[in-house]
Write a structure and sequence with these properties.
heterodimer; A: 188 residues; mainly alpha; Rna Polymerase Sigma Factor, Chain: A; Arc Repressor Mutant, subunit A; 2 domains; 71% helix; 0% strand; B: 219 residues; 10 helices
């Protein structure tokens, strides 16, 4: 598979029956989609599921892809929708992954002292909780910006929003996060 | 919908966020830098947003460090057998590679031997015979057949007449090939007895009747 081919060319190939083309698209975007899902959902397991669901949905709707948007924007939109519907489902079931106190078992550098590790964990838990407490429309722009490092234009395309709205939402989100993290710091 | 909740005293939230993320144009960036020198609230805001970003980045890096790419189930990925084999060998340990190589060599040697032997057989089966050879083989075969087969009783003209007048039934219960061959000529006495014994048609008491019948037929 030609790694220099654009996403749009890869989608065209997938539409003509090239079985490996879609795999290439998955390889290109899975990490970023996972990052987005992780930022939105806050739990590795959920993020993995959402990532898989995103690509499944993309594969099923490949024929419905219109060339007027970028493939990346299209994928991000699907991913955001998957995350939102997953959150709704888990709310109905009374789960809230991001509010769980226990941390996921990600590895921590050994050079850190236990006190530093505990402090770091507390901090990341606080960030997680702060992001989770944001309304969905603010959370998705923060995650897309901070986790995926998308430009304002890309976020606007993916969410089908005006550029000014993206900027204002991002500003508001950062402001709210700042206040929540200040609260956390003052408590400790 | 005006979503901008700007800091008190400054209305440049949109410029601030573009500057903060490095997405302002050259002219706008320079303009906002000049503004920052004069606006305390914007300066404080940029600094606090920097802290927020730092915390988010720490969380993101920690989160993504645990991400290991997993094969997606969505696309039905078809891989050529050769590619799959190559991948398998790339992942397998050295001893397995060695064992597989040995097995492959053994297989090739055995396959070569089998091929060689089958070629030899083919050569022997396609042996060319001369005319004398054919004549000799035919003669031998005829002589062997003559030794194996008992002398055939030549039917007498009377027997032929009887056979013509009494056509044999078309179907027989014991219609084996040898019996069919025998039915082409009149049966000798011994053969009739043997046939009757085989079919269990007659008891030993009926032997006398059989003799009489045989005599009558032969007449």
């Amino acid at each position: 598979m030609d790694t220099l081919a654009t996403d749009e060319i890869i989608v065209e190939r997938a539409l003509t029956g090239d079985a490996e083309a879609f795999g290439e698209l998955v390889r290109r975007w899975e990490r970023r989609i996972f990052a987005l899902a992780y930022g939105m959902l806050g739990r590795e397991e959920d993020a993995r599921d959402a990532t898989q669901e995103t690509f499944l949905a993309a594969f099923r709707n490949l024929r419905g892809f219109r060339g007027d948007a970028k493939v990346s924007s299209w994928l991000h939109r699907i991913a955001v929708n998957q995350c939102i519907s997953r959150q709704r489902r888990s709310k109905i079931r009374g789960e809230s992954a991001l509010e769980e106190e226990h941390e996921t078992s990600f590895t921590t550098p050994r050079s850190y002292s236990p006190a530093r590790v505990a402090e770091g964990r507390q901090e990341t838990a606080a960030v997680r909780r702060a992001i989770n407490s944001l309304p969905v429309e603010l959370r998705q722009v923060v995650v897309m910006k901070e986790f995926e490092e998308l430009t304002f234009r890309e976020i606007a395309d993916a969410l089908d929003l005006p550029l000014s709205t993206v900027k204002s939402r991002l500003y508001t989100a950062l402001k709210q996060l700042q206040m929540r993290l200040q609260k956390f710091e003052s408590r400790n | 919908m005006n979503e901008i909740q700007n800091s008190p005293g400054c209305e440049r939230a949109s410029d601030l966020i573009a500057f903060f993320y490095g997405e302002a144009g050259e002219h706008e960036a320079r303009d906002f830098q000049l503004h920052l020198q004069q606006c305390k609230s914007c300066r404080e805001e940029v600094a606090s947003f920097g802290d927020v970003r730092e915390s988010i980045t720490a969380w993101r890096d920690e989160a993504l460090a645990g991400f290991i790419s997993t094969p997606m189930t969505a696309p039905p990925k078809t891989k050529s057998a050769l590619a799959a084999l190559r991948q398998f060998f790339d992942l397998s340990p050295l001893w397995l590679k060695g064992a597989t190589a040995l097995a492959a060599v053994t297989f090739c040697v055995l396959a070569g031997l089998a091929l060689f032997r089958s070629n030899n057989n083919q050569v022997s089966s396609t042996k060319v015979y001369t005319e004398q050879d054919v004549a000799r083989i035919v003669k031998e075969a005829v002589a062997q057949q003559a030794r194996v087969q008992p002398p055939v009783e030549t039917p007498s003209p009377e027997n032929i007449a009887v056979n013509r007048s009494k056509p044999k039934p078309k179907s027989s219960r014991a219609s084996s090939s040898t019996q069919f061959a025998r039915s082409q000529r009149p049966l000798s006495k011994e053969e009739r007895e043997q046939l009757a014994a085989e079919l269990r048609l007659l008891s030993s008491d009926d032997d006398a009747t059989l003799h009489l019948l045989g005599d009558r037929i032969n007449q």
